[in-house]
Amino acid sequence: MQTPKVVILGAGYGGLITSRQLEKTLRNGEAQVTLINKHDYHYISTQLHKTGAGTAPDEKITLHIPDLLKRDKIQFKKGTVQGVDFTSKKVQLESGEFIDYDYLLIGLGFDVSTFGIPGVEENAFKIKSFRSTKAIYNHMLRQFAAYKEDLDPSRLTFAVAGAGFTGIEMIGELIEAMPKLCLKYDIPVSATKIINIEASASVLPGFDKEAIEFTESYFKKNGVELMTATKIIECSPTSITLDSGEELPSRTLIWSGGVRGNTLLEKLELPISKGRIIIDKFLRVKGMENVFCIGDAALFMKDDGTPLPPTAQVAIQQAEVCGPNLIASLRGEQLKAFEYHHKGTVASIGNKAAVGKVFGLKISGLFAALMKQVIEARYLFVLGGPGLVIKQFLKIGKPHS
Ligand code: FAD
User: How many angstroms does the Cα of residue 294 sit away from the middle of ligand 1?
Assistant: First the structure.
């Protein structure tokens, strides 16, 4: 009998942690596992806002994938997935290459929803990947340099659309980045403006009153112009049009208005809802026995009929069940039903403040910021043990300034 082939698409939180699970449990020669990802680095998505603002060095946000894997157990292949033929069980890469599988895991992550608002897709910046956030930082540098020449205030007006989790984290980093950038370009901080535009009545919809109040007052103290109950209806390279009719002169709109599953998923002809693949309680694509899907790409319905949110916390917990379920499938054993245990949510507002709830306890300020660091360190620990935690903390690459 031929060795079964397991193929994992995407080396994000879901794909990587599943790979680690397989490494630990698979017996030698029991399966041939291939992990496919667009780049040979994994980016820590939960810290992409730092890349966008230039407040963390690239080496802290990206990890070289082959270094994270036991190569005798998992093969890494750099490639961009273009499609999957579920009948002949082949993954097609953009390079034209086909990869055979017996068992497949789809962990292709998220895309940004722009809701068809005119000009947003073309002109706004997205917090989506390492590259897309690096583009935000490089654009900001160009705006600072150009401002020295033409003193056009729209160049130093930085707008963030959305005051949900990601939007707040982005604003927090911008607050910290501005003084450093101003020093670098010898421009007064008073020439810069940070605007947060949110359609709901407050920041952080769904968070506790205390978290909302803490964040709004933190923004006020740091000069952020908060526009709640305001919708963006159009965006051009030099301005943002609001539903009030007002036109804000700004050359930087950072869009964090919501996420959806990777747009590629729609081409796969699988059961899909809201851009995400519908999965069963064992994390398999509905109606398929050999295709699994987890993380932001997957739509898992809770018993109360609501979907699990697209978070790293969900992706990691799913991966911890998906690995054993893939092995159980190979061995013809019983699969385990996935159960989600929410441990809490903490949104950072720069390095020194955060808000959220951990194990039911409401936290804010510096303590919450420290808690956020513990959560990030825990992820590194799950991924690569204490060695990786220490290695990442010792990376001294300087933040950009
Ligand atoms: P991803 O981590 O997105 O990984 C998908 C992988 O697939 C990537 O490596 C990508 O390169 C690869 N890929 C995509 N398309 C292709 C293709 N065609 N071919 C090959 N490879 C491809 N969640 C939390 O729980 N807590 C937080 O504090 C938190 N903070 C966040 C802050 C920010 C700024 C952002 C953007 C998100 C945050 N999230 C947070 C959400 C979290 O990052 C996502 O839920 C998580 O990354 C989902 O993991 P995933 O494995 O499904 O996908």
Answer: 11
